[in-house]
Every structure is written in structure tokens, then in C-alpha cells.
Amino acid sequence: MTGVNLAGVTKRFGDVQVIHGVDLVVEDGEFCVFVGPSGCGKSTLLRMIAGLEKTTAGHIAIGDRDVTDADPADRGVAMVFQTYALYPHMTVAENMGFGLKMTGHSKAEVAAKVAEASRILKLDDYLTRKPKALSGGQRQRVAIGRAIVRGPEVFLFDEPLSNLDAELRVEMRGEIARLHREIGATMIYVTHDQVEAMTLADKIVVLRKGVIEQVGAPLELYNNPDNRFVAGFIGSPAMNFVGGTVARAGVVTAPGFGVDVATDAALPGAGASVVLGLRPQHVQICAGNTHRVEMTEALGGVTYIHLTTATHEKLVVEVHDTPTAKLGTTVGIKIDATHALVFEDSTRGLRLR
Ligand SMILES: Nc1ncnc2c1ncn2[C@@H]1O[C@H](COP(=O)(O)OP(=O)(O)OP(=O)(O)O)[C@@H](O)[C@H]1O
């Protein structure tokens, strides 16, 4: 078993605490993705698992070994970074085999491991080239190959595709998914990219300010967020939020939507403030003059129309047919209230179910 287990993991840089007692189980063979806003501690947590940052308190186990204080080289992990850091004077094959060669493996053993990694990553045609004669995507494949050659129990990826252009990212995303299927190792992956997180992950971990907000399968987080933060973070464009007031049992008045919303969420008493969340695909434009068109983003197959409500809240509407809403005009909206989620009007913003 080579899952990863974090128990009460804490990190302090001097007086500043950046990771606050994280508990997390990554199962053997699972693809786990860390997401969260810039500075929330994704990379720090990954580097702690790698052993590149000391753990201030708590425990990290890989399989059944406690590695909290182990050297990076003794943890059975290999890390792939955003920058490929290949040796410029070595060929692709030498770059991939270098780590094993340094740890005293025989020539034949190194050659066999490099050949296997090259086959998996389709690098056979490039083995004698130097890095400067490779594209960005090919260089990142070599960096991944270097990790594979080491035969780690756990792969750690720190935003490995963020230096690549959009087309290459899509291709490499597919490569990484295939790599995971083929070798079945435990993988932990840090990204800013919603699509990478949603498509690669078995399990997404949403972090905020060094705390886990929610852990779950991609669609579970999308459909069933525990709080307003996760609801707003997972999904692009983000969920719309408007203020509401509990009218009576099962009904919330939401001036930003222009209608009362019936809900089976456990509401506080009449008069209490709540926040309603609704995704852009559950709002439609119709005739009316309650919402002002602030911006339209026509992407071809889909258009996002940005509105302001009479209550000065912002709403994004997803439109699939030719949009008729003109900039600066006012329109009406219709909502599909069955999809509305209700959150506490508080800093935690817990979902009311
Ligand atoms: N060596 C360090 N000394 C002091 N503070 C640090 C150090 N490394 C990271 N931090 C702080 O720890 C917090 C978490 O940083 P980290 O790089 O893990 O965030 P992140 O979620 O990976 O961000 P990004 O998505 O921008 O890469 C940040 O506030 C950062 O400033």
C-alpha cells in the first residue's frame, strides 16, 4: 500500500503559520488534485510531502512508513516541477537516467528503465536529442520520464503544465491521465487550472488559507459544495451569489433574482439573511428591465452575459443561442430555482441543507 496519510500537518515559516493542521488520506493509486487561491498553501503542502519543507507539527505517512522526518530521497516520491530543470548538456536518455546512474545502478538497469519510460511517454524518437532541440511539451515529458525512471511509489506534480501554451496543455493533460492509467501509481497534483482539476482528479482537495475546505470527487464538489467558498471556487465561470431574506418556512426572497425562491434547505427563522447561489447555466435572459448588461463574452459556442441587478449585485448568465442582450441595455431574467443552493450569511458561509 502506498497511499499518503497526513495527520494534523502544520507548517510555520518563523511566526507565520501557513498550514493549519491538515488531515488527509490519499488512497493507494488515487489521483489527488490540490486546488485553491494563490498563497493558500498548495505548493507548501506538496513540498512537505516531498520532504523539501520541514513539517512543523503532525505526521506524514507514505504507505505504512512514517516519513515526517525522512530525507526526500528516502521517501519513495518523485516530484515534477513547473520548470523542467533538465541538464542542457545531456541527451534526453542521459537526463532521464542520470538519477539512477548516480545511485549506482548498472548501465543495463538504467537503459532498461529509460527504455520503459521512453515507451510510456512516446519519447523514442528523441532520446539522442539535447533539451534545446525539444518543444516545451517534449521537455516536460522528459521531466516526467525522469520521475518515472526512479520508480517512485508516489508522484508529486507542482503545476507541471503551467508553462505550456493552451494547445500543448490539453495534449499533456491527456498524457498525464494516460500515464496514471498505465502505471496506476498514487499521484498528487497541484494546479490553478479548473479543467485540469476536474478532468484528472479522482479526488479534489480545496484549500483556503492553509485549511482544507472540502475533499471530494470533482462532480461531488461541483454539485454538493459544503460552503460558499467551495461553491464559488469549483466551476467556471463561478456560481452567482445574491443576498436573500427568509420570508417564511421554505421560502427565501431574493431581490437580485426578482423572485421568491422555494427551497427545502434548513432555513433560519423568518427575517434572517442568507445567500443564494445559482450557476450561470440556470439563469436565462428574458424581456424586462430589471438587470443591466455590463459585459458580454462571446466565445463561439457559448456566451457569458454579465449583468448587474437592481440591488447592485453581479450575475453571469450562460447563453447558448445567439445572444440578443446589448451592452448597456436592461433585460429581465428567469431562473431555474430548483438548482438554487442556500448558504449562511456568514464568513464561513456554510451550506444550509
Ligand atoms: N519560505 C517561505 N517563507 C515564508 N513564507 C513562505 C515561504 N514559502 C511560502 N510562504 C508563504 O506560505 C503561503 C503559502 O504558499 P504556497 O506557495 O504554498 O501557496 P500556493 O497555494 O502554492 O500559491 P500559488 O498558487 O500562488 O503557487 C504564502 O502565503 C507564502 O507567502
UniProtKB/TrEMBL annotation:
Location of the ABC transporter domain: 4-234
A Pfam family: OB_MalK
Entry-linked Gene3D superfamilies: 2.40.50.100, Nucleic acid-binding proteins, P-loop containing nucleotide triphosphate hydrolases
This protein's UniProt keywords: ATP-binding, Cell inner membrane, Cell membrane, Membrane, Nucleotide-binding, Transport
Record GO cellular component, one term: ATP-binding cassette (ABC) transporter complex, substrate-binding subunit-containing
InterPro entries listed in its UniProt record: AAA+_ATPase, ABC_transporter-like_ATP-bd, ABC_transporter-like_CS, ABC_transpr_MalK-like, ABC_transpr_MalK/UgpC-like, Mo/tungstate-bd_C_term_dom, NA-bd_OB-fold, OB_MalK-like
Nucleotide-binding listed as a keyword: yes
Gene Ontology molecular function: ABC-type maltose transporter activity; ATP binding; ATP hydrolysis activity
Family listed: Belongs to the ABC transporter superfamily.
Protein name in the entry: Carbohydrate ABC transporter ATP-binding protein, CUT1 family
